[in-house]
């Protein structure tokens, strides 16, 4: 029974001085809506997490609780589908102060988002605690757990980590697997080297982008109408619909800035 | 500018005695992560909704605010991706008391869930306010807005509506479109008749299932270990890990009930 | 080595009087385009099938060779992706006289088509030899091998079988699996009963549709401009562009018939 | 009516000295299997192409006929789904001598394959005639027609073009569109420059890979068991199952080479 195992692992983690504690709910979901009482299952899941929080307090542990979102496989539909689903769950059950997220981009793509999506959203919403670096394959619909090898993707991850000022006590871990056909012993080493290099290269790209300040400045400019006047009031939460109306009637429709997506893609190619 | 239009429509809705007010944010999302400041955009979206709530209060309107989730198209990734993403957003910005959801199952399938998923989750989490009945096509990746024609699906929707005690002041609306090749005038009538029949048949199926009490009873049995003893204590939030441990050491691992998915599918076929 | 096993199984099949011989190439594909010589692999696959044809001739076996298409899993991309990919392969290598297809609709949905698609296309192109009835789940991206339970789907399969005058020496087989959570012994029986019932009900629906002649007649009408005049000449392959031009200049643009998809869906609901 | 328009365009193409003639069947497919006679529609499509071939012969035109595969949108399911589906169709109707393929990788990803898949398969099967360079977005399910910006992808395309000795009289064309939010005039120029650069960079990468001969050599080694002995006989089509059996009984099971996918990915990163 899960609570029993969990209690033991929490005891051991405390003893070993562990900094993080990941809940990988890889099978907690429903297979068929016909035989499932969704509300009961969510309630039970919350009860389980509450017991964990209470026990952690009782033993005086300080490690960070983390939930790793995953949309499916082997279940049809997991309760911790993606970052925002978990945040919805945590806030609905008053558990959001006790948990952060351990994001695996492989699961993010399986949920229909891009590799970096949940990393960025979790970070911006204050929930990014750790990263499980595996990549998936967007043409495939199962959990391939491949070694991450695309610097264009790792750079976006590292840029997010830099922007949030690091990720301690969490970190970046690999639990990737080599392919079934990679049958030489050296393949395991090559894979780790390749993936670490991909992240190292990603970190350098991210640093160049931030230091070069061309891309960040262009992004900033896109939103500069929120820095003064009515825009600033909107951003500060001080504006009203009546003030917006007055502004438009006086100034006319504002011209939108071009999104310049192709320019950003071209610039990004320059850095990668 | 959006706030201006919205103010007008709120004034008009108040005058006409409207019961519901749907925010269809069908383009509010990002196209490229490279040129987007996600945090700023979410903040601005929240500021916009706060202004709407304030203005509604000011004019003394009582209509229900609703947000209609949609994952994508034409944007790459919308901020109101699915039911739980919107709930996460609303709770993150303290707006959850002011909004319910208008679920369109067509958008639910586009987000990678089954037709009924968001209807059921929104309902169980207390956010189901209204239903936009369009169906999509699970083999296609865009918003097809087809007339719903599958009683096996409409029955699950109507069962949820019955279980939550009705859906007023919201309702069930069609904004489905006939196919491009359906060029006769009568096709518009046939489509509405067919879709209304599909929901009427769905309602009858749902009523039979609930009254027959075979399926609901089987579901209830699946969770009956939570009705007494340690299970009941867990459900009530009164159990601790230590008590769970004590229970297991004394009683051994509990035997899981069979999910009996095939039996449920067979029984469901009997009703549909 | 595969040829060795295959030789043995062919010998045994001959001895047992087997009618069909299925090649399930469930892993014959590529994982990465970077390390694969696609042309060589297709050539080798064809060489393998040619040896099989030669050996079958040599031992005087009469059983029907069948290939079962499957798009992926565990490989990234299989060479026998779907029905038309296999037909392309067989014709490219001059093997099309020696093979038919064993279609598993579960694989068809995994390839991005609807459940019945490959059954119908294989049949209409003269390649449907046998059916493996498993169903998948259109919301999932892996091979779930579920028991088929939807009469709306099985009816389309049985309609195709009736239209091609039966499927002997092939047949309809289940190699479906019960779900991991279906842990009672009786679940295996229930699943088979439910799936056989779904096909029996599908056969009855198909027979009613064909005998009722409402749907078939409407389909026929949709194409009736090909039964006389220039349409008939086009269908017979006797028309030329000049004749089409002459016809249009004299008669103007023909009015297209309405596709009436919603009427067909409504009528199909009547039968199912 | 289509034949009429087509005749005119063929006349004009002849007059202008056009080298290629692309059939973009972007809407030739079925929306619903219920109202469609698939066989009739394929027959009519073939009749149409036969008239085109006859007319081309009659006017003495030498331009290359090309078909551009596309899986869907706006139809549910097109008849020219992907490269191998079109090859299957062409061979089934005896039209394969008269047509090549114009591959748009954007359509390839929409069909569930990787960007480069149809380019490579069409080339290896002798059907690659021209390339429409647009890219799609693997996280989206519709035809986004974006400017190609990923050198890792364009390199695979250019490598294929080099390997087949060029692509004349076809070529590489852009009919990509800038995003809806790219509202500056300069965005159109930036997008073309970025995409041309991506292909130029792809060509250089491909040339380095081929000249460096590290990756090609490793691929060659993977298949070297087909260069001598029984392997060579299999490849030449001279082996029989009996000879394979004899070989195995004498030599035991051959050890498979490691696929070394991660090494290939790491090396590919070195070049890109």
Assembly state of the chains shown: homotetramer
Reported for the largest beta sheet of chain A, the result is:
5 strands, parallel
| Major β-sheet strand ordering of chain A | 1-3-5-6-7
Helix content of chain A: 40-55%
Helices of chain A, by number, come to: 11
**Biggest interface pair, counts:** C-D, 73 and 73 residues
- Approximately how much beta-strand content do the residues of chain A carry? 5-15%
SSE order and pairing:
Four copies of one chain form a homotetramer.
Chain A: H1 2-16, E1 20-23, E2 29-30, H2 38-59, E3 64-67, E4 77-78, H3 83-92, E5 99-103, H4 105-110, H5 117-124, E6 128-132, H6 151-163, E7 172-173, H7 186-212, H8 214-222, H9 229-235, H10 241-251, H11 261-271
Parallel strand pairs in A: 1-3, 3-5, 5-6, 6-7
Antiparallel strand pairs in A: 2-4
Helix pairs in contact in A: 1-2, 6-7
Short summary:
The structure is a homotetramer of 272-residue chains. Helices cover 51% and strands 9% of the residues of chain A.
Features:
globular; 7 strands; homotetramer; 51% helix; 272 residues; TIM Barrel; 2 domains
Written overview of the protein:
4 copies of one chain form a homotetramer. Chain A is of the alpha/beta class and 272 residues long. Chain A folds into 2 domains: 211 residues, TIM Barrel (Alpha-Beta Barrel); 54 residues, no CATH class. Helices cover 51% and strands 9% of the residues of chain A. Chain A has 11 helices and 7 strands. In chain A, the strands form 2 sheets. Chain A has a 5-stranded parallel β-sheet. In chain A, strands 2-4 form a two-stranded antiparallel sheet. In chain A, helix 1 packs parallel to helix 2 and helix 6 packs across helix 7. Chain A is globular and about 65 Å long. The termini of chain A are far apart. Chains C and D meet through helix 1, helix 2, helix 3, helix 5 and helix 8 of C and helix 1, helix 2, helix 3, helix 5 and helix 8 of D.
């Amino acid at each position: 029974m899960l609570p029993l195992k969990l209690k033991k692992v929490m005891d051991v983690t405390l003893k070993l001085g562990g900094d993080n504690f990941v809940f990988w709910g890889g099978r907690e979901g429903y297979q068929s809506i016909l035989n499932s009482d969704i509300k009961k299952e969510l309630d039970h899941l919350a009860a389980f997490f509450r017991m964990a929080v209470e026990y952690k307090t009782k033993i005086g542990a300080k490690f960070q609780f983390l939930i790793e979102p995953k949309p499916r496989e082997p279940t049809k539909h997991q309760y911790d589908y993606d970052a925002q689903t978990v945040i919805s769950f945590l806030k609905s059950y008053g558990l959001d102060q006790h948990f952060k997220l351990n994001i695996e981009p492989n699961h993010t793509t399986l949920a229909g988002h891009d590799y970096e999506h949940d990393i960025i959203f979790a970070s911006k919403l204050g929930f990014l605690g750790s990263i499980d670096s595996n990549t998936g394959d967007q043409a495939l619909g199962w959990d391939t757990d491949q070694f991450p090898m695309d610097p264009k993707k790792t750079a976006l991850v590292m840029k997010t980590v830099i922007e949030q000022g690091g990720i301690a006590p969490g970190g970046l871990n690999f639990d990737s697997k080599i392919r079934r056909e990679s049958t030489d012993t050296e393949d395991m080493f090559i894979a780790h080297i390749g993936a670490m290099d991909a992240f190292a290269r990603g970190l350098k790209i991210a640093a160049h982008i931030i230091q070069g300040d061309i891309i960040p400045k262009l992004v900033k400019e896109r939103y500069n109408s929120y820095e003064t006047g009515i825009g600033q009031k909107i951003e500060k939460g001080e504006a009203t619909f009546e003030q917006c109306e007055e502004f438009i009637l006086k100034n006319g429709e504002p011209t939108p800035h071009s999104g310049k997506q192709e320019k950003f893609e071209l610039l990004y190619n320059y850095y990668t």
